[in-house]
Design brief:
The chain has helices at about 10-15, 60-75, 110-115, 140-145, 155-165, 180-185, and strands spanning about 40, 50, 95-100, 130, 170-180, 205-210, 215-225. The protein is of the alpha+beta class. The protein starts with 8 loop residues before the first helix and ends with a strand.
Length: about 230
């Protein structure tokens, strides 16, 4: 039986910490103190839109099944592993996917693809860093810094995660994505803030994603708290 497209509160819950404004500014503004728009909506195939916009496409059942399977696999590898990476909070990764049927073939994960896939819900002044699943990267340096006083076992799931993404035949590309950088956000001139922004958000998304041949994204969603 095919699944009908519908808003999914559980999938929205995964993103909610990055949407909360913590009583700063107005709940009616888009980014008073948050990185993802307060108007973000998520459907049951993972597609994202911004209220009041609505979607009415047909769910790609094969793509959905593939993304569910892939995100479940990597979530098991990273189960009970804190995101870390300099976070002031102990939070974990969650399975994450966005099922797409791209009219124009997409071959690489880029900042533009991430921004579009999040349906313009990302704070417009936040940087989006897309890096390969390798060690000579900014994201891996943050992992190393967080685990520098930990035993070697700390890095084992992270290494397995990198290997898993690079070995998946269902992916044509993979990347680690950092949405928002605390130092960069602090340096933004207030006069450049979008309407309603009081301060820039400090709950910053961190994603490990693979790209399928049909343009879907599947992997993990987490976040760091850098206040």
């Amino acid at each position: 039986m095919n699944m009908a497209l519908a808003l999914d509160p559980d999938k929205l819950t995964v993103l909610t910490p990055c949407m909360q404004n913590h009583d700063v500014g107005s709940d009616h503004d888009e980014w008073p103190n948050n990185i993802l728009s307060r108007f973000t909506q998520v459907y049951n195939d993972g597609t994202i839109t911004k209220y009041p916009a609505s979607l009415n496409h047909t769910i790609d059942q094969n793509g959905l099944g593939l993304c569910q399977n892939l995100s479940s696999q990597i979530a098991k590898i990273m189960a009970n592993v804190e995101v870390g990476m300099g976070s002031n909070s102990g939070d974990y990764f969650h399975p994450f996917y966005i099922v797409h049927q791209q009219k124009v073939p997409v071959k690489k994960i880029t900042p533009e693809l991430i921004y579009q896939s999040f349906a313009n819900t990302i704070f417009p002044l936040a940087t989006i860093t897309v890096e390969p699943m390798t060690s000579n990267t900014l994201w891996w340096k943050e992992v190393e810094q967080d685990g520098e006083e930990s035993p070697p076992s700390y890095f084992e799931p992270w290494k397995k995660m990198k290997e898993w993404f690079t070995q998946q035949n269902d992916f044509i590309d993979s990347a680690f994505i950092r949405i928002g950088d605390a130092m960069q956000l602090e340096q933004i001139d207030r006069k450049d803030y979008p309407h309603g922004t009081v301060i820039t958000g400090c709950v910053l998304p961190r994603l490990a994603l693979g790209l399928t041949v049909n343009g879907s994204l599947a992997g993990l969603f987490g976040y760091v708290v850098q206040s």
